[in-house]
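User: Fold this, then the next.

Assistant: Folding the first:
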Amino acid sequence: MKAIRFANEDKSQETFSSALRKNVNNYFKENNISQNANSAMIIKTIVMVSLYLVPFAFLLIFNPSSWIGLICSIIMGIGIAGTGMGVMHDAVHGSYSKKKWVNNLLGGSLYLLGSNVLNWKIQHNVLHHTYTNINEYDEDIDSKGPIRLAEKSELKWFHKHQYIHAFFFYGLMTLSKTYNDFPQLAKYNKHGLTKGQNGKPTWEYIKMVFRKVLYLTLIIGLPLYFTDYNWWQVLIGFFVMHWVAGFILAVIFQLAHVVEGADQPMPSEDGNIDNEFAVHQLLTTSDFARNNHFLNWFVGGLNFQVEHHLFPQICHVHYKNLSYIVEKTAKEFNLPYNLKPTFGAAFMSHVKRLKELGRA
């Protein structure tokens, strides 16, 4: 992987970055508040984790009918998505708390969802946040089966109608992670990315195998042992739970980066992106539905991706207020601020981009 630099001869870009940091820091100083989680974030944590664990405990204790069990699986899927977006995401970025053990504990909720923290740190914190929307660097816009998300990736005939079929395959996101974490970690081990996170490649692989086996034993084995469901009913519930979670997560992720106005720049031959890093983040991300209170709460600030990419060390509960500061500062420097006013507008923008990416 060729090293990439972010640089531009226009000194106003560097000035923008400095001015933005100053304005954001002043916001926290003037209001005398922490950049980390507040009491509302703690309440959200309890709610989200409960949405996942309480229906599961209900299934094991009360052994309800299959239809009630299916509803529980759907609620658990919503809980997985909510925990991933609103708890794990901040914790793995280290923005939930100043205390490392709190971030490690809550970041470990990813193991309860069937995935692996180290993989997430490398894929998301390192690759996605460093090389946002750069083809072959940012894995989030890699082609995913029959879905083409990058302008420079290979176009195939079945991409033509991806704006229709993509949404089914989005639902397979978390389910596929239960297996795809293995080849992904092997690749990270090979390229030295695991060592870059102070991990020992072989030991990290062993730990991941153990955690995956434990997860599947609990999430599938306990219902088989404690309830009257047939094995195929348990597997259907497992699939539905993951499909609901994957669909929610994938759609929210895509509305932030694969929409109109979110650039997909390519480095020059010498590995340079012709923008300062902060400007690159501004140009490759998008906010949406800023005034939708429920969405702001449920998706963990992922509808404020501009702010998150500029300030990943700040807890998402502050992003809405910061968005006005970022927008004002960007306009002062004649830089674009990509904001879709509603969820519907962002969704339709994503559908339009899928159509464009599915055609020559």
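Now the next one, as you asked:
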Amino acid sequence: MAIALNNTISNIRFRLVSGPLGQFFRWWWLELGNAMPAQLRSRMQYARRRLLMGIKDGELTMSVDDGTVMEVLGSFSVGQDVPLRQQQVRELLQQHELTEVSRDLLLDEVGVLRTEVTMPLAAEANLRQALAYEMDRHTPFKAEDVFYNWRILNRDRDAGSLHLELYVTPGKPVLEHVELLNRLGLAPTGVDVTHQQRPLGINLLPRELRFRIINRRARVNWVIGTVTLLLLVLTMTQSLWLRGRQIEATHTAIDEVRDEALAVQQIRKQIEDVSEAAGFLQTRKSQNGLRVEMLAELSGILPQDTYLDRLSLLDGSVQMQGKSDNAQSLIELINASRFFEGASFRGPTRLDGRSGKEIFDLNANIISSEAG
């Protein structure tokens, strides 16, 4: 059960690291490092130092690697006076602030077998177990007798194959070196291999044998970084919340102003309608008032022996049809009025046989300027 759970966790970790998300974060971290000031990059590089330990001919050589330069700190004979060597090691680590950095046993590449291996791409999720099954096919060793690790060269997704570089070293001599380092108080966190005078960057030591170092400074930095990140997220969340509230308040104010604007527009339209109605009434009143005055004028100037059968007040003219004892005198009477001019018969007058009066059809122009 524990093995299955461990394999599941390893598969998930592997997919996260090797997947698009892991690639993005590696790229992002690299770009972030390049964008940092040189002094800050130097401090971070100093914090990422690791201790490299090489054992050869009974001599322990200790070096520090900051990722670019490997500096030798000192050498000790490991064959005698172990308590003295422990004291010397502690003083050296304290002097160079290396008590809480990772410690790797460095193997000579001569003692490490390197071979290229092709595996099915589907085996990548559980590659360590797959390599253990086929260890004796790719190397002269059995999986239980060696420590091994690999570096992926490329993934051929079209062919469904995985090309990798496998590094294998006998486990017994490495275990002897690990036990010696444990006695000196230098329990290693990993086993690396030299390549062209530099660490290769792999770890051949099985996970269960790796010593776990707790870097208190790094832990404090992680705590501070986590708190800073949480505060940043909180600040951003609060800013977004406040922005949302401001937008909501703005929309509310806009709605209120829009309602007021609509109300003002409605009032303005009502005023315009009332004004138009008032103007219409005033116009009608003016027009009707003028007509009433014209009717009063005609009633006053027409003789008692004249009456009208039809009266039409048109735009700019008036037409009268009726009967009179002396129709010809009507022309002078109407032209003498202050409302009319240019009076004339529209046709000849004729005699009405029943009443004995003259039938007339008269037209006159309205004097609008004087009437206004």
